[in-house]
């Protein structure tokens, strides 16, 4: 299992566009073979931030996700164009 979070900051004026990209990206990502969990969140307090919790069956499923047309369209060429910061944290399940 491959699990991680991605935290991204964005300008508050881009909030609606960020949400649109997240809706499209989430819908397509959840249909991918090997996608176990894909849950985007808007952080409730503080600066404009999103947090995405992702789980994939294995590295091949993650590679499929990162090379998909919807990732290119909605993440690389969409969401990533609006973010001001990005932090990825790989997770290790303990239970």
Task: Describe what this molecule looks like in 3D.
The protein contains three helices and four strands; from the N terminus they run E-H-E-E-H-H-E. With 95 residues, it is α+β, with helices and mostly antiparallel strands. The chain has one domain (2-88): Alpha-Beta Plaits, CATH 3.30.70.100. Strand 2 and strand 3 form a beta hairpin. Helix 1 (15-29) packs antiparallel against helix 3. The two termini are 12 Å apart.
Q: What is the helix tally?
A: 3
Beginning-to-end CA distance, first to last residue? 12 Å
**What is the radius of gyration computed over CA atoms, rounded to a whole number of angstroms?**
13 Å
For the largest beta-sheet, the strand count, sense and barrel status come to:
4 strands, antiparallel
Count all strands and give the number: 4
Order of helices and strands: EHEEHHE
Q: How do the strands line up in the largest sheet?
A: 2-3-1-4
Domain count: the total is 1
Mean pLDDT: 97
Percent in helix: 25-40%
Low-confidence stretches: none
Write the CATH architecture name. 2-Layer Sandwich
CATH domain fold name? Alpha-Beta Plaits
Structural class: alpha+beta
How large a portion of the residues is in β-strands, by DSSP E?
35-45%
CATH class: Alpha Beta
Envelope shape: globular
